[in-house]
Amino acid sequence: MTSDRDPLFDLEGKVVAITGGSRGLGRAMAAAFAHRGARVAIASRKQDACEAAAEAFAETARQRIPLGRGGQPDEIVGTALYLASSASSYTTGSIIQVDGGLAWPPA
After folding, report:
1. Distant-in-sequence, close-in-space partners of 102: CB < 8 Å, separation ≥ 6
2. What's the rounded Cα separation, in Å, for the pair 62 and 73?
3. What is the pLDDT of residue 87?
4. Mean pLDDT, the chain cut into blocks of 10 residues (107 residues total)
5. Rounded CA gap, 34 and 28, in Å?
6. pLDDT of residue 1
7. Do 20 and 44 contact (CB within 8 A), yes or no?
8. 42 phi and psi angles, rounded to 5 deg
9. Which residue, 13, 26, 68, 81, is most buried by CB atoms nearer than 10 A?
10. Which pLDDT does position 106 carry in this prediction?
11. What pLDDT, on a 0 to 100 scale, did the predictor assign at position 2?
């Protein structure tokens, strides 16, 4: 994915776990890590607050995807079947992106 992030702070492909991530400083840190491309796991003592924060982060993530939503399992099954079958016997070293257009560089 083409990114305007500073490469020094690009966290694409990294996972960050934040305790107390549903409010205050924890939520601010979670938002900052997510903005830098990390996948963020938040934990909180209050389940409802944690679920609300997770939904807010999920909405932000959906806005980054050109199709505007997360993928469904039935949308990747064709690719998985292809890779598991002999039809892919000549496919090697390839990246097949099934990502709703996320990796497509903007014009």
Report:
1. 1, 64, 65, 66
2. 16
3. 95
4. 64 86 88 84 86 82 82 89 94 87 69
5. 10
6. 44
7. yes
8. -110, 150
9. 26
10. 59
11. 45
> Where exactly are the structural domains of the chain?
7-64
d(CA 37, CA 8): 12
28-35: Cβ within 8 A, 24+ apart: 30/57, 31/57, 31/60, 34/60, 34/61
Radius of gyration of the chain, Cα coordinates, nearest whole angstrom = 17
DSSP output for the chain: ----S-GGG--TT-EEEEETTTSHHHHHHHHHHHHTT-EEEEE-S-HHHHHHHHHHHHHHHHHHSTTSS---GGGTHHHHHHHHSGGGTT--S-----STTTTSPP-
- Report the distance separating Cα 66 and Cα 89, nearest Å: 31
Q: Give the pLDDT confidence score for residue 73 in this predicted structure.
A: 85
**Amino acid 66: pLDDT:** 86
